[in-house]
Design a protein that fits this description.
Number of helices: 12
Radius of gyration: 27 Å
Distance between the termini: 72 Å
Shape: elongated
Largest sheet: 8 strands, mixed
Structural class: alpha+beta
Number of strands: 23
Oligomer: single chain
Helix content: 10-25%
């Protein structure tokens, strides 16, 4: 039998009743060989065989199964497995069977197209808005969900009270009705699949996700379980429409507006980074993080036109809106369709530079900008051009102590974006204490804002 793997569970072990003191190992997977037919497979054996077999293929691979045992479904055992249209299940053992990656490329190519067909009726799903609207009446239910991926957190490792190791990963989903909804993964195989996804560019059909009420966060949440099959970028009309919406709303920046950078006290941020160090950490760590850098402000366009320094944003969702509009244009705004409530604030893009590189386009917005510049927007609009230029040169080319937050971003070339939380001229004494992070070099900046070495102290 040849098929594409559309689902896979973690390896588990049980005490062997026939051999006291030994464990039997097992894992399950689901294969599909045509648009309408797929079947569950269970593999059993010792530790080395099962773990070796499990590591030899992943979801999305095309496999050949030789000499499996065909058995009737067991209602008791199969209630924890994905629902399939077949009346049977397959058993694989080391003594009788083999599971190999398919080497026939023509067959593999034909099978791989099946990976984008949902395991359930493509029209049978809940929108995130439906789940929120139904609330706790869905608590404990298993349902299908169609949603786009907004963000993927970093996997968390933990150890239970009885010494077992576990992991947890949370995905934020969204659609045209809800801007953020949690999906939690506990299994390594599910986490492995999710970590390959591209946020804001991926749509998921999640068959048989468990819905529960999260009392800690006071909201509904979905969980991936052993019955769940996740179809990535489904080949359906509904998924195509959602993908177009996700791409449009992502490019508009609407999803970024509620990511507030001021969500930790600045005084609690103590980790010091050079620019290259923070870039490296951002590449290795998909989650947001905070830090301090002692760097030069190399771009601060306070002397641009006022309209490029101060912008008007919706008070409800922080989305930028033209001053002459009466309603917010953000389709995810909680005040959509209501009279616009807006406020003006600083909205700057700042570069900072040290001897290791430059971080471009860091956002500096009100109210942080007003604290840093010691100037309100009203006061700024009344300044002369010379006064705005003088304010700019108070910081430009000066070494500053900058508190920042780094976030992943699919819209920037580097894949990250920065937000400045606080900034002040660096205290020379404090910088000397931190200079282990920095080369003992004096700098100046050229007109193109690149750092140029003058001399190295002896």
């Amino acid at each position: 039998m040849v098929g594409v793997v559309i689902g896979k569970t973690d390896v588990r072990s049980f005490p062997d009743r026939k051999n006291i003191g030994f464990d039997r190992f097992t894992f399950g997977f689901t294969i599909k060989d045509s648009p309408d037919f797929f079947i569950n497979v269970s593999a059993w054996g010792n530790d080395s065989y099962i773990n070796g077999l499990s590591s030899s293929f992943s979801v999305g691979d095309c496999v050949t199964i030789e000499n499996p045992l065909v058995a009737n479904k067991d209602p008791e055992k199969d209630k924890f497995c994905p629902a399939t249209p077949s009346l049977y299940r397959l058993l694989v053992t080391e003594a009788h069977s083999q599971v190999l990656l398919c080497t026939d490329m023509a067959t593999a190519d034909r099978m791989l197209s099946l990976i984008h067909l949902p395991a359930k009726d493509s029209r049978d799903f809940y929108s995130l808005g439906d789940i929120v609207a139904n609330g706790q009446s869905l608590d404990g239910q298993v349902i299908n969900i169609l949603a786009a991926v907004r963000s993927i957190a970093e996997p968390k490792q933990f150890t239970t009270s009885d010494g077992r190791k576990g992991q947890r990963l949370e995905v934020k989903l969204f659609d045209d009705s809800v801007s953020s909804f949690p999906l939690v993964c506990w299994d390594r195989e599910a986490i492995k699949l999710v970590l390959t996804l591209i946020p804001k560019e991926t749509v998921l059909f999640i068959a048989d996700a468990k819905i529960s009420f999260d009392s800690f966060r006071n909201c509904m949440a979905a969980t991936v379980n052993s019955k769940t099959i996740i179809t990535v970028n489904p080949d359906t009309r509904e998924a195509s429409l959602l993908y177009s919406y996700a791409k449009e709303v992502s490019e508009s920046g609407a999803l970024d507006q509620d990511e507030k950078p001021e969500n930790v006290p600045v005084d609690s941020i103590t980790d010091v980074y050079t620019v290259s160090q923070l870039k490296q950490k951002a590449q290795e760590n998909p989650e947001a993080f905070f830090g301090v850098t002692y760097s030069f402000i190399s771009k601060l366009d306070l002397d641009s036109s006022v309209s490029r320094v101060i912008r008007t944003r919706c008070c409800r969702c922080k989305f930028q809106v033209p001053e002459d509009l009466q309603t917010c244009t953000n389709s995810l705004c909680p005040g959509r369709g209501q009279v616009l409530s807006a406020s003006a604030g600083f909205d700057l893009l700042v570069d900072f530079t040290d001897h290791t590189g430059t971080l471009h386009g860091c956002s500096l917005r009100s109210p942080e900008a007003e604290k840093i510049l010691s100037c309100t927007t009203e006061e700024f609009t009344n300044l002369t051009d010379d006064e705005r230029t003088a304010m700019k040169w108070k910081f430009l080319l000066e070494r500053c102590k900058i508190y920042f937050k780094i976030l992943p971003s699919t819209k920037t070339r580097t894949g990250i974006r920065g937000a400045i939380l606080a900034c002040s001229l660096a205290n020379p004494g404090e910088f000397c204490c931190k200079r282990a992070h920095y080369a003992d070099v004096r700098y100046c900046l050229s007109p193109t804002s690149k750092v140029t070495k003058l001399r190295t102290s002896s």
